[in-house]
User: Fold this.
Amino acid sequence: MKANTEKFGVTPNQPSLWTRADALKVRADDPTTTQPLVSADFPVLNNDVFIWDTMPLRDLDGNVTSVDGWSVIFTLTADRHPNDPQYLDEDGNYDILRDWNDRHGRAKMYYWFSRTGKNWEFGGRVMAEGVSPTAREWAGTPILLNDRGEVDLYYTAVTPGATIVKVRGRVVTTEHGVSMVGFEKVKPLFEADGKMYQTEAQNAFWGFRDPWPFRDPHDGKLYMLFEGNVAGERGSHKVGEAEIGDVPPGYEDVGNSRYQTACVGIAVARDADGDDWEMLPPLLTAVGVNDQTERPHFVFQDGKYYLFTISHTFTYGDGVTGPDGVYGFVADSLFGPYVPLNGSGLVLGNPSSQPFQTYSHYVMPNGLVTSFIDSVPTDETGTQIRVGGTEAPTVGMKIKGQQTFVVGEYDYGYIPPMLDVTLK
Ligand code: FRU
Assistant:
């Protein structure tokens, strides 16, 4: 990849590297970067559906926005099947874990609303059945565009393929609630190109998803982050000196970590409306470190770019590891160079005693971090678990320079607005 190629008036740098040496600094259970234990007696938002990735309605600058005093969130959602013979075990009991693990294949975009930023009321599906072109509606971002209530929902249309798409609709409020109208025409934006971003043909396990559009506070242009993998045939990537970083003697062996090729992608809009996009080289790559940097997003604070992304234990490469949770990097300008927060990148991980308690953390500019409950152990050995599929307690976090600190815990699914828009 060539450095400093001018494209649409922007000058991307070489991608920053999350190195194996950085990842060796990850310390699970450091109290300043560990999510408080989630109790197994958590409340469930809705017993008919599982919810996971949570996408607060926001503006292009990242501010979580309510409309006419109503907070709105979008969630990836799937029906629960407690009575479906397909999900009963040999004894005729509901195998909720299997149902939960199958959810990605039937993920749909739903919305919820609230007067208090918690205790979310069920809104329903955003798009009617048949509107979205593929089987799965995967994560993205709902953007409130103006005081007419227009909303651009950017999301990922998956299976077949994986395409970043958007659909425009409108949020309508009454005294009694919120509805989403329109959302009838899905516009494909772009797919992986095989030159910067890995395609399905190059790797059946490729990732290309989770659009997060934003206005750059510095140049005012419209950009979009997304999850990708570095282009190239599976197995062909090199984990060289740069990817390894400054490791101690005895840590040079990279095992099979060439299969881990995550990156944070970026695209720039050619038009003001965000209908026409140009992919740019990744902002950050994790070759030899991790295979997934999901749901990338920014917090713009103190003139810096705080880049957050979620990742898993199971997606780390040989010889490096870390908890499921959110990782972060900071730079003085959009195109980097990015430095891992807290030295390692780890910002908020699950405690090792409850490694799957939460996931899909979203850091908001007010320092609150929302996530969903995956599963929580109900006995000492961790063999019995309770499946979540609901909102986790919100965590309070302070961001200072190149460090972050857990400083508080709030109610389940607490996502208060940062500003309110009165609709005309
Ligand atoms: C994160 C995630 C996203 C994806 C969705 C699929 O939890 O893996 O990257 O869009 O879930 O269900």
Summary: The longest strand covers residues 178-190. The domain at 2-239+258-418 is CATH 2.115.10.20 (Tachylectin-2; Chain A). The pocket of beta-D-fructofuranose is lined by residues 52-53, 76, 104, 107, 138-139, 156, 209-210, 227, 294-295, 359-360 (CB under 6 Å). The chain is about 5% helix and 45% strand.
